Amino acid sequence: MSFKDNDYLCPSCKGHLNVGGQLVFATKTERKHKGLILLNPKIGEYSYKAHPKFHLEKGELVEFFCPLCKVDLSAKKQKDHAMINMISDEDNMEYELYFSKKAGNKSTYLVAKDVFQTFGEDAIDFSEFV
Ligand SMILES: [Zn+2]
């Protein structure tokens, strides 16, 4: 699946989170530092961009907020993950895209009706996830 042409939406306000090929989030670290970060939406790509004065410590839990409506993007059941909606360019289906809120944790989950795909070396399996 190609990820660059997909649309990524806030599950609450349905605003677009993808701009210029990156996902934009407002974040807050455990140390209460706030910053905007850009994530590459390509699954398996876990680098981020931020202002040089804003950095995440490995293993730190980061809160992700929609930059538009400020909603906390924490997943309802998996509190240590954030969830956004993804509209696939290929099949026009809406997926739930989960990713770990822990800095440096490499795991992403793509969920839809009858679909559960995991990506990244730190991903856990379905039975642990749900
Ligand atoms: Zn929103």
Task: Write up this protein.
The protein has 130 residues and is mainly beta. It has one domain (7-129). Helix content is 3%, strand content 37%. It has 1 helix and 10 strands; from the N terminus they run ββββββββββα. The protein has one helix at residues 126-129; strands at residues 7-9, 18-19, 22-28, 34-39, 48-50, 63-65, 81-87, 94-100, 108-112, 115-119. The strands form 2 sheets. It has a 5-stranded antiparallel sheet with strand order 1-7-8-9-10, with no helix packed on it. Strands 2, 3, 4, 5 and 6 form a 5-stranded antiparallel sheet that branches. The longest helix is centred in the last third of the chain and has 4 residues, at 126-129.
Provide key terms for this protein.
mainly beta; 3% helix; 37% strand
Give the gist of this structure.
Helix content is about 5%, strand content about 35%. It is mostly beta strands. The strands form two sheets. It has a five-stranded antiparallel β-sheet with strand order 1-7-8-9-10, with no helix packed on it. Strands 2, 3, 4, 5 and 6 form a five-stranded antiparallel β-sheet that branches.
List the helices and strands and how they pair.
Blueprint: E1 7-9, E2 18-19, E3 22-28, E4 34-39, E5 48-50, E6 63-65, E7 81-87, E8 94-100, E9 108-112, E10 115-119, H1 126-129
Antiparallel strand pairs: 1-7, 2-3, 3-4, 3-6, 4-5, 7-8, 8-9, 9-10
The structure holds zinc ion.
Residues 10, 12-13, 15, 66, 68-69, 71 line the site of zinc ion.
